[in-house]
């Protein structure tokens, strides 16, 4: 494997030759060796640095990109960074079109590298004129001297990995590689590596890791296109079938979920000292899951590609608050725990519709609450609010001795005891309180104040 130059002519010469490291802690109980290839140590911080020069070289050779021209690319961010390195070194302009689910850190990084960033909606089909693919094509047609590399269809994408990533792995391990595992998006990484190993080491298994919600793994297994479902992991999975995916060199697919992938990435940081992105967590999780079920020889070598750095996700899954809001923290908190930790007031303070307004106001004062559910056996018939009742009493004193049934506000929305924290947060943005059902009855009331108090008390124990 060629070494990096002592003095590089430019930053592009530093791309590749990333190291392998044994992941001996997150895979401590496994019989196989799990070896991470640290692609985030490329100068632009990701595996996509490798395809930037490859895409540009091809365009220059074919006369599609001329000096001073503009590159326009649809990307989840990292390919944009790889192209930005090329644009800076070779004097091109760059327009990056990316969907709105991408982290703010990626957008800031691209702008810092001189790219113009265009953000498009993520919850639209690839054919929609608002999608990042459609917008990139349109801009490439409208901007004079522009070229759209289109990493989803450009064979220079997998070719970069056929020529560099695959050979590096095989050489570093003296020709003995039992499996290579990589996440799949455009398919360039896993397809290029797969083609190389099928040609040079046919016994090496090639495994692709796809996020739940992507259409790639379902298509590979059934040959049928399904509808994509939104997911949170950035940079992998697709809502279309890229031409750069070579399914013939991929032996197996593993599907992983958002939360478990993010938690594995956080484990890599805390247990291995490897600060990597969510796709790296997905890759490691998928590799371990696949290898446990595979018939591997003793001390087998399983190489997993770690695509990018964690510094692009500080505002997302490396944030405890973001993880809680999305229900991704391990042992996710539910309504049950929020009720169990409510201070002072009992979890459930309720009144019956037959009670007088006077009695209800007394209950509200004694319990220091501003509202109560009004319940009949097994039924949530309404709510009573101190502010509303006092207003009515001030207008007509006789209201005090009338049944509160005559002055009910709408019932509190109901949730179950196992409702996750993410759903509670979402619901309490719209509703001021939620009534928690338990079997045929009710366990308690959770207000916005209760939830804020809970989050403040649990800041330390909620961290993974």
Molecular structure report:
- The protein is of the alpha/beta class.
- It has three domains: 11-46 and 155-325, Rossmann fold; 50-147, Rossmann fold; 335-457, Roll (CBS-domain).
- It has 15 helices and 15 strands.
- The chain has helices at residues 51-61, 78-90, 104-112, 132-142, 156-172, 188-200, 216-222, 258-272, 278-293, 320-325, 335-340, 357-367, 386-395, 421-430, 448-457; strands at 20-22, 33-38, 70-74, 93-99, 116-120, 146-147, 179-183, 205-211, 252-256, 301-306, 371-376, 379-385, 414-416, 433-438, 441-447.
- The longest helix has 17 residues, at 156-172.
- The protein starts with 19 loop residues before the first strand and ends in a 7-residue tail after the last helix.
Blueprint of the fold:
Blueprint: E1 20-22, E2 33-38, H1 51-61, E3 70-74, H2 78-90, E4 93-99, H3 104-112, E5 116-120, H4 132-142, E6 146-147, H5 156-172, E7 179-183, H6 188-200, E8 205-211, H7 216-222, E9 252-256, H8 258-272, H9 278-293, E10 301-306, H10 320-325, H11 335-340, H12 357-367, E11 371-376, E12 379-385, H13 386-395, E13 414-416, H14 421-430, E14 433-438, E15 441-447, H15 448-457
**CATH classification, class level of the largest domain:** Alpha Beta
| Tally of separate domains | 3
Principal-axes geometry comes out as: elongated
Strand order of the largest sheet: 1-2-10-7-8-9
Oligomer: single chain
- Tell me the major beta sheet: 6 strands, mixed
Count the E strands: 15
Structural class: alpha/beta
Q: What's the end-to-end separation, in Å?
A: 38 Å
